[in-house]
Structures are given as C-alpha cells and as structure tokens.
Amino acid sequence: MNVSTDLDRRFRDAAASEPALEVAYDVTESPVGPLLLAATNRGVCRISFEPEPEAEVDRLARTFGRSILRAPRRLDSARRQLDEYFAGERRSFELESDLRALPAFQRLVLTELARIPWGETTSYGRLAARIGKPRAARAVGGALNRNPIAIVLPCHRVLGSTGSLVGYAGGLHRKRALLGLEQGELTLLE
Length: 190
What we know:
Layout: H1 5-16, E1 23-28, E2 35-40, E3 43-49, H2 53-64, E4 68-70, H3 76-86, H4 104-113, E5 122-123, H5 124-130, H6 137-145, E6 158-159, H7 172-182
Parallel strand pairs: 1-4, 5-6
Antiparallel strand pairs: 1-2, 2-3
Helix pairs in contact: 5-6
C-alpha cells in the first residue's frame, strides 16, 4: 500500500507531538556533510556525521526506547541553529542536551567542553585539569571520541598538547573545517 506524501507528513507531524514518541530524528545537509539529528523530549541526544539512519535508529532504540520516528519538524530548532552556526551568525547554541544515558565521567567532560567559547581551543590535558582530573587527558580524549552531540558540544575545539589536530571522530578534515569556520575561513567539504 502506498501512502501519499501529504498523509505521511501529517502522520509524522501528529506522531512527533505525542509524548509517547521517545526519539525524533532526521538527516540534514550541512557544509561538512550530512548530519543525523535526533532529540528526545529532554533535548538533543545525537548529532552524527556520515549518518547511516538504520544503524543510528538501532543505537537510539537500545539507548532510549523503541518509539523512534523520522519527524523533521521536531528538529526544526536544532536544524535552524546549526544553519545559523554554519552561516557564521550563531556563536553558541540554545539547545537542551539529553546526556542521561552516558557515564558520569563522560557527562562531566562534555559539560565542561560546552563551556569552551566559539573560536577558542584547549588541549585534552587542560580540559582534564578543568574537570579536576589533571592526569586524565587520555580518558578525556576517549570521552570526546564518543561525543554523541557533535558541533553543539564542540569537541572540535580540543587539540593535542602541541596544538596539533588529533583525534576527531568526524575526521580531521571536518575538525579543520569547523575550526576554520570559527576563524572566518570555512571551506566546504566535497
């Protein structure tokens, strides 16, 4: 049975407004490639590069529950803020994040990471010191490598101890592009 585009859109819009929907997701284009966006009722829970929707939906279901739907409207605010960021019009995000499924150490690292301002960088060691664990630079790197909310939680702003670009799950080419954007030199990826 085929469903009209209009009926499909109306169904998704109605379902997205239901409190029983545990996760809404969509895929959007960006200057650094396609991004999968996902949000619970508590906030954004995933922004990932090179998304494979089926694999991401499986991961989201294991983490948040089985009620998951591609519901673009529920992600309008996140999409708009990302568009503003890429246009150089937004320097900080006004989005709630849902990090409840993460281990306490990773939440601590990501909370501190969110405090690094637009255009500034730090090192893994300095970030470890900022959370009161100066010997945990490697553990901080591991926590950032599994950052579920790329760009909004700006792990691209964390560099190696020598200032070198290292360790970015989205690829160093994306890290370079995001840092370039924040320095007024965004190069689109192809």
